[in-house]
Amino acid sequence: MHWNVVANNFDYFLWGAYPRGPLGGLALSILLAAGGIFGAFWIGLLAGLGRLSRALWIKLPAVLYIEIVRGIPLLLMIFWFYFLGPVLFGEAMPATTSSLLAFIVFTGAYVAEIVRAGVLALPRGQMEAARSSGLTHVQAMRYVVLPQALRNMIPSFVNQFVSLTKDTSLASIIGVLELTRAADQVNNRALTAPTEIYLTILVLYFIVCYVLTATSRRLEKQLARYQARSR
Amino acid sequence: MAYSFDWNLVLHGKYGQWILEGTLKTLHISAVAILFSVLLGTLIAVFRLSRVRVLEWIALAFTEFFRNTPLLVQIFFWYFGSAAVLPDFVNQWLYNHDFEFAAGVIALTVYTAAFIAEEIRSGIFSIPKTQLEASRACGLSFLQAMRYVILPQAFRIIVPPLISQFLNLIKNSSLCMTIGVMELTYMTRQIESYTFHGFEAFTVATLIYLVISLVVSLVITQYNRLFLRQIRY
Fold it and tell me: What interface predicted TM-score (ipTM) does this complex get?
């Protein structure tokens, strides 16, 4: 076994060439995931509420967006942004930007379904009571329904964040220097230790994702106490 | 930058043939991986529920590890790294056959089995405990009760989530392009680099994936409508 290959490149796996070069490795993976989930939250919130709307001109685009995105592989989405950015906008986007955009648009559709399920899970009485105390539909959503629904959605958001952290590995295919790409590079250079290198990478991803998964489980238990229930 | 569309390019002739072959390869690798992942997933779920501590631990470690690591890295691990893990005669056999395909199937199977095991487990949990107790009281052994009473009911409930896992697998099979399995995404990418007509190729591939996912979700809705509402406790 050639564990020294892993030991010599461990800092490269963690943060790339950072002080001397651009940030990469696991740090970039986590940054991409964090940026992706942040953007996806807003798009998902819009699309999720849009899908619940009764106005067809709001509902239809939301449904189309959610169903189309959920029906295609993320890799294809990344290719759309990467190869067709130049065709549509006339100039090439950096691979990091285009993969981040792909992550946001892709994850947004899944977040939208979480939002929809979260709002529907709240007892109808909450909306009815808010409306009858004089709030408009939008106000009732904003001040009564969403604050409760969003709190219940936190564990699902964390799970989505875990998925995205795993999915950031796909950015390596278009050349973003995150953890998986760093591993490929080291593997291509060393040639002697593929098993050791990929095992190490798997363990690194596992540690990050497992900590998050465990957090989401704990949150779920804690939040269960505050849930509004219909009788 | 002017872009002239040429839909005939990807719909007919050599490149149309590539798209067709790619689609068939996607369906082929997915079908094989679906078969194996259901078998492995059921095994893991039963391990997880058995009272034998060691089996329970193995199953728990399996699901947690493979659910919390990226499929792409798992594919690379099986493709580049399995030689040091698997016995020599297995490696030899794999190299003489379609190694890319086999590595892809192994990765997809193991990854999806971890998710399927969780679905099956929750399905088994949703069957009232009294069912097991009653069948045990009738004189069936634990395995017989599982085989004849619990699993048939549980599988009925989990068909919809199971099918959506299959859909995930079909979409995930696109990652096998990275190790050279010539499936739909691989072919699309290939057409893009040969002709620079990526737009048409990606559109056709997107539509094919959409049709597959539409068919799958139709199947789920029909199943729900026909069978699931009959189950009441």
Answer: 0.91
